[in-house]
Amino acid sequence: MSESTGHSALTPIRGNLGLAVAMGMGRFFYTPALPLMVAALHWSSAPGAWIATLNYVGYFIGTAVIACGWVEPNRFVYRLSLIVSTLGLAAVALTPNLIWQGSIRTIAGIASGLIFVCVTQRIPANSRKPHHGGISYGGVGFGILVSGAIVLAAGSFADWRQLWLICAAVSALFTIIAWTWPIPARIPQNPTPTEAAAPTETDTDDPAEAATRFEANRRRAMAILSTGYFFQGGGYIIIGTYLVVLAGPVFGATAAASTWLIAGIATAASPLTWSAVAARIGTVKALTVCYCLQVFGALLAVFGSSPVVLIIAAALFGFTFIGVVMMTIGVGTQMGVANASAKLTSWYSIGQIVGPAIVAAALSEHIAAAFVASAVALAIAMVLTLVGVLAGNVGR
């Protein structure tokens, strides 16, 4: 059986480690490492914020070039992106020059976006069993867990440069295993809709008219789903960005790594849990429960004056955001939309850029209000996502 189509017990593990390289380390190692860099380099808050924003922009570029059809999410793109993401981690350690740091993090964001789409676009096709998708998506949380563990374990004796090099070494090891994720050399541009998404009942005997109505309905459902995913990206990233700020006075210097470790553990367990829940009660109900918990976590963080509250908020953040991602992308791919993962993730990426920008412009002095804004955005995302799922007639 060929590499591009073969199945084995290691297939979900390869997807897991691919997403760990792309997301947990390639994108998110910056979060626990940033406080040490700020302290060592005497940065103000502005450089870190701008570098993080450039990474979000790069991530959007990586997903957008696939969504627009300019780049195929094929084997070459996937493997090249794994290499670039790993080298990007090591390159951060070369110099603290802000132009260099911003450029490297932008390139790393592009690589992360490409890897994410290459893996997630293929998860439904590569999963013989529902839990296989959960294992693959669990790589995001596993990578976050590894990132936090590196900083907690080595932060007391290694400087910021050495931490990035350690992370790069771990990423290289994961890349070797993730290298053979079964993605074809070329990807079909027009996937066949699944049975759930295919038109089964019409009010006309004209096949052409039925197909036109089906296509219009599918476009409408995808537009609604994408809008909801935009609000999800904006709402979730506010929590991910400012939870550390709330935790600072409570946990002290290790706040970022501690809360990130908690979020990573919850994120790693989340996909398997939500795949099982969705299989049992349906995607609509599972998404509703997942979103409600996410909104509750955002509101709970407003009262984050104690370690227990912050631990619960961090756990809810990690436990819910990847569940929403997994189920929403699953719905998009079931609709039979070409490059559904890339298109949805592009809107998610725009939300990630807009969310922190709005908070920085209007709510920077009112962190509690930022979390309320996050909860509102997530509530809007929930409504739109559920409407999109129902309109697309999938995931019932």
Automatic annotation (TrEMBL):
Any single GO CC term annotated in Swiss-Prot or TrEMBL for this entry: plasma membrane
Matches recorded under InterPro entries: MFS_4, MFS_trans_sf
Region (Disordered): 189-208
Compositional bias per record (Low complexity), positions renumbered to this chain: 192-201
Pfam families hit by this protein: MFS_4
Transmembrane annotation, as ranges: 12-30, 50-71, 78-100, 106-123, 135-157, 163-181, 223-245, 251-274, 286-303, 309-332, 344-363, 369-391
Alphabetical UniProt keywords: Membrane, Transmembrane, Transmembrane helix
Protein name (database record): Uncharacterized protein
